[in-house]
Design brief:
153 residues, alpha+beta, six-stranded mixed beta sheet, rod-shaped
């Protein structure tokens, strides 16, 4: 079973897409250079066609970036709620946050919380403002703990 530490959850909040941004900036720079060429040489068909093609690529990338922005916004909100829950649990129970791990990156009913070597099932109310925990036992003894080192790779 996979478990994620608080450090891993917090690292997921700030993860970004740098390659997509670099490609987008390169295409915008090419569009700028091509736009200057069109203005200098008039609307010759060679530059006009390239300008239209690059403009369509920019519109395509803008659509992809908007979709990625919405996905990352939702993912960031889920990770923030999980980090808030783990901080709250750690403070309420006086347990160091390094000893906590969960089997989900998103708050949900029935998720498993690992505290040292003990496992607890977490149930939330419909608003996810309160929770109850019940001690559970695992069938499989193997755990994979994902920490901040895994997020950096």
């Amino acid at each position: 079973m996979d478990f994620y530490t608080l450090a891993y959850v917090e690292s997921q909040v700030v993860a970004g897409q740098t390659w997509g941004f670099i490609v987008f900036v390169a295409i915008l720079l090419a569009l700028l250079v091509l736009g200057i060429q069109v203005l200098r040489n008039g609307f010759t068909s060679r530059y006009r066609d390239l300008l239209i093609i690059l403009s369509l690529i920019v519109v395509f990338f803008l659509g992809l970036e908007y979709q990625e922005y919405n996905r990352m916004k939702t993912y960031s909100e889920d990770s923030s709620r999980m980090a808030q829950f783990l901080h709250s649990f750690s403070t309420d129970r006086a347990i160091p946050s390094e000893q906590l791990a969960v089997n989900s990156l998103k708050i949900r009913n029935g998720m498993i919380l690992k505290v040292n070597d003990a496992y607890y099932e977490v149930q939330f109310n419909p608003e996810f403002s309160t929770y109850t925990i019940t001690r559970v036992y695992k069938v499989s003894p193997t755990d994979r703990i994902h920490d901040i080192v895994d997020a950096l790779q």
